[in-house]
Amino acid sequence: MTEVKPMRADARRNYERLLAQAQRAFAEHGVDASLEDIARRAGVGIGTLYRHFPTREALLETLLRARFDGQAERARELLTHPEPLHALQSWLAGLGDATGTFRGLVELTADALSDESSRLYASCHAMREAGSHLVERAKNAGELRPDVTTHELLLLLHAASWAGGHLPGPGGTQRLLALVFEGLRVS
């Protein structure tokens, strides 16, 4: 077994600056932001960026893993909420915020859900698995149509996140999800 050496202090600073600048660049320009610009903003060369993050997806995965893992944990916490449909809606709203963070992220996460070779697959799959328990709980309580699947809800969420990013002002995804939620109730 090989032992992982701790990062030197200067390497750790470069790593943290790269993450901070990547967060800003992806927020401003979407997931296709220039990696060269991210390195320049962080005050390092492109080779330093690639030593820490060999691909764009590796950089995005590092930025997003904690956010996505947090959404999986939130789904597990919401399993104890007394209103199953409200719990599901709350989780989907939080997930919509997480996937709408960067322009182009919706497509990336949708692809990662079905691509086992993706670096984001494990986090995305854990989110979907945790959310599926909320879906089943809402169905079993008679609060969600029995023919609705987790996959369908995630596709609707991705569509709302994408479209919400094209509405003026903040909260577009939440407004669109509110419209979707009203159509999910059992008549």
From TrEMBL:
Keywords: DNA-binding, Transcription, Transcription regulation. InterPro entries: Homeodomain-like_sf (IPR009057), HTH-type_TetR-like_transc_reg (IPR050109), HTH_TetR (IPR001647), Tet_transcr_reg_TetR-rel_C_sf (IPR036271), TetR_SbtR-like_C (IPR049445). One of its GO terms (molecular function) is DNA-binding transcription factor activity. Residues 12-71 form the HTH tetR-type domain. Residues 34-53 bind DNA. Gene3D superfamilies: Tetracycline Repressor, domain 2. Pfam families: TetR_C_43 (PF21597), TetR_N (PF00440). PANTHER family: HTH-TYPE TRANSCRIPTIONAL REGULATOR BETI (PTHR30055:SF234), HTH-TYPE TRANSCRIPTIONAL REGULATOR RUTR (PTHR30055). This is TetR/AcrR family transcriptional regulator. It comes from Amycolatopsis iheyensis. The lineage of its organism: Bacteria, Bacillati, Actinomycetota, Actinomycetes, Pseudonocardiales.
